[in-house]
UniProtKB/TrEMBL annotation:
This is Synapsin III. It holds the Pfam family Synapsin. The keyword Phosphoprotein applies. Residues 23-125 form the Synapsin pre-ATP-grasp domain. SUPFAM superfamilies: Glutathione synthetase ATP-binding domain-like (SSF56059), PreATP-grasp domain (SSF52440). Signal peptide: none annotated.
Length: 234
């Protein structure tokens, strides 16, 4: 009777039933890369902070589309071909690893809008989305290097001089005058070359021969001219 009273009062420990542990939702890692590297095998069995499993989604820039919301993050649509089968999935990435160039001058290879969408949706990335977007423009990167030269000095941070034109029109105007000068000089060199063609080979010792000075001069000039077109400040 005494034990019954104690049990009713809750003083005796009851056999506790095990509470099922809720399975943690896996963290989605979006890897933007070509299919030659299977990134899923490198993260197989890995966990974030020892508790969150990692689910890898891999695709190229051309296989992705997205919608980003200011309050709801970023939703990515992926359409890839795996072993001849078209795979279509939608997911919300927690992290993104970018292993492809986001911008190229080739037709249809400007994916900067996807970088903006990931940034808009607050997706974390390596490298940072800010740096990836900035590196899409080489002149912009070079302008940052110019700032380093201004702070450290050319002795500590030497930088090759370059010239920036806002469009091709200004560059073409400079090239036109350069080509006119080149055409006049080329005619003179051709005349000089024709006069010296008979003495193109000069014997030195025995069977050893050397190209004539005029031919070497003409070849060097052509090489210098091509360098001048690429680096106008040299």
């Amino acid at each position: 009777m005494k034990q019954t009273t104690q049990a009713a009062a809750g003083l005796i420990e009851q056999s506790a039933t095990p509470v099922p542990v809720a399975q943690q939702k896996p963290q989605i890692l979006l890897i933007i890369d070509d299919p030659h590297t299977d990134w899923a095998k490198y993260f197989q069995g890995k966990k974030v902070n020892g508790e969150f499993e990692i689910r890898v989604e891999q695709a190229e820039f051309s296989e992705l589309n997205l919608a980003a919301y200011s309050t709801a993050g970023c939703m990515v649509d992926m359409q890839v071909i795996r072993n001849g089968t078209k795979v279509v999935r939608s997911f919300k990435p927690d992290f993104v690893l970018i292993r492809q160039h986001a911008y190229s001058m080739a037709l249809g290879e400007d994916f900067r809008s996807l970088i903006i969408g990931l940034q808009y949706g607050g997706v974390h990335s390596v490298n940072s989305l800010f740096s990836i977007y900035n590196f899409c423009s080489k002149p912009w990167v070079f302008s940052q290097l110019i700032k380093i030269v201004s702070s450290l000095g050319p002795e500590k941070f030497p930088l090759v001089e370059q010239t920036f034109f806002p469009s091709h029109k200004q560059m073409v105007s400079n090239l036109v005058s350069l080509f006119e000068w080149y055409n006049v000089l080329q005619k003179k060199l051709r005349l000089h070359k024709s006069l010296s063609c008979r003495s193109r080979v000069i014997p030195l010792h025995g069977n050893v021969h050397s190209t004539s000075f005029s031919s070497i001069t003409f070849i060097c000039f052509q090489a210098w001219f091509m360098i001048a077109l690429i680096f106008p400040n040299i």
